[in-house]
């Protein structure tokens, strides 16, 4: 796999950008801005790492955990029930990132094993 070609990781970066931008059209509640900022930046950074270093399963697994944390952040930050609009603008990109990452893990593992198997002989 070539660098910067994994559509799944581009989708994760886009999900991070959306999470950051969503703060401009939603009303903050409690710590929602902090969670959305942290989650958006984390998705952008780990997505960019996976784009730059394709075939790195460990980074894909980290990305999966980050996506799970973004999905969980409305509950962790106590803004899931008070302002559901804010929560939905976190849940949706989090789930998109989670599904995209789930689709990227197997190809990354396959590429990693093919590359390391070929160089061990």
Give a summary of the structure in a few sentences.
This protein is mostly helical and 121 residues long. The chain has 4 helices and no strands.
- The total domain count is 1
Largest sheet: none
Query: What is the C-alpha radius of gyration, as a whole number of Å?
Result: 16 Å
Taking all residues together, what is the mean pLDDT?
90
Class of secondary structure makeup: mainly alpha
The backbone outline, from C-alpha atoms, is elongated
Q: How many distinct beta strands?
A: 0
H-E string: HHHH
Helix proportion range: over 70%
Supply the number of helical segments.
4
| Terminus-to-terminus distance | 21 Å
Q: List low-confidence stretches.
A: none
Strand content: under 5%
Oligomer: single chain
């Amino acid at each position: 796999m070539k660098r910067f070609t994994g559509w799944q990781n581009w989708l994760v970066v886009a999900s991070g950008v959306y999470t950051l931008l969503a703060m401009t059209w939603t009303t903050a509640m409690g710590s929602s801005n902090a969670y959305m900022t942290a989650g958006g930046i984390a998705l952008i950074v780990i997505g960019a790492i996976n784009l730059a270093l394709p075939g790195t399963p460990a980074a894909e697994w980290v990305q999966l955990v980050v996506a799970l944390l973004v999905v969980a952040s409305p509950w962790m930050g106590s803004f899931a029930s008070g302002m559901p609009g804010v929560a939905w603008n976190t849940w949706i990109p989090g789930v998109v990132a989670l599904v995209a990452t789930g689709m990227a893990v197997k190809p990354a593992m396959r590429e990693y094993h093919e590359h390391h198997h070929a160089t061990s002989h």
